[in-house]
Design brief:
The protein is an alpha/beta fold. It contains eight helices and seven strands. The protein has a seven-stranded mixed beta sheet with strand order 3-2-1-4-5-7-6, with helices on both faces.
């Protein structure tokens, strides 16, 4: 097999994975708002994995660090139990307005969403320790190591923490890369792998999900 054929096959497989569960109209509209506001959302495959994890955990309480315009929140809510509540944190009021509109447009009751405006590092300590099924982190990569420790504290036994976009640009696997984001990604990957409270895995969909389940 030539290298060109191999690369073409890899691209085709990636397209198949991303398109396996296609976006509906609500998600397409939300992605359009994300583009308008310069906000990079999870890919369709990454979002589908979030729904899958939330459903597998029968999640009732989820924390999202980095609301964006609500794309990942839609996937999370769709996987959660019917009365589950999504707590989502962002510093941008325009993002919160767009996300709330997306959630309501999708038919989720207002009581199923708790949008908190502020710095996640200030908000997380105020949340209930051990009270959450799933924590999803999609915010400033430089803060990932700090979000790690605070996020793990929020998990119940068997809960899962997920970091988005850890494989973007292959920075995490290149020791020679010394820019701050690359260092932060490698630091959080090492912390997750070495923490005896956690069972880690990297899920290579979208920009890459670093996931860990709490014992």
């Amino acid at each position: 097999m030539s290298s060109e054929t191999h690369l073409a096959g890899t691209a085709d497989l990636g397209d198949f994975i991303e398109g396996y569960v296609p976006d509906d109209e609500v998600l397409v509209a939300a992605r359009g708002r994300a583009e308008d506001l310069g906000c990079g959302p999870v890919s369709p495959a990454g979002g589908t994995m979030l729904s899958f994890l939330a459903a597998t955990l029968q999640a009732r309480a989820v924390v999202e660090i980095g609301t964006g315009v609500g794309v990942s929140g839609l996937y999370l809510l769709r996987g959660m139990v019917r009365d589950g509540v999504l707590t989502t944190i962002d510093i941008e009021p325009e993002f919160h307005r767009a996300a709330r509109s997306a959630f309501l447009e999708a038919g989720f009751a207002a009581g199923r969403m708790r949008l908190i405006m502020g710095r996640a590092l200030d908000v997380l300590p105020r949340l209930t320790s051990g009270g959450y099924d799933l924590v999803f982190v999609d915010a400033a990569r430089l803060e990932y190591p700090n979000y790690f420790e605070q996020g793990v504290q929020l998990l119940r036994p068997g809960g899962v923490i997920v970091f988005h976009d850890v494989l973007a640009g292959a920075r995490i696997g290149e020791p020679a890369r010394r820019e701050p984001e690359a260092l932060a990604l490698r630091e959080v990957a090492r912390a997750v792998r070495e923490d005896e409270r956690l069972l880690p895995a990297i899920i290579p969909v979208g920009g890459g999900l670093l996931a860990a389940a709490a014992f």
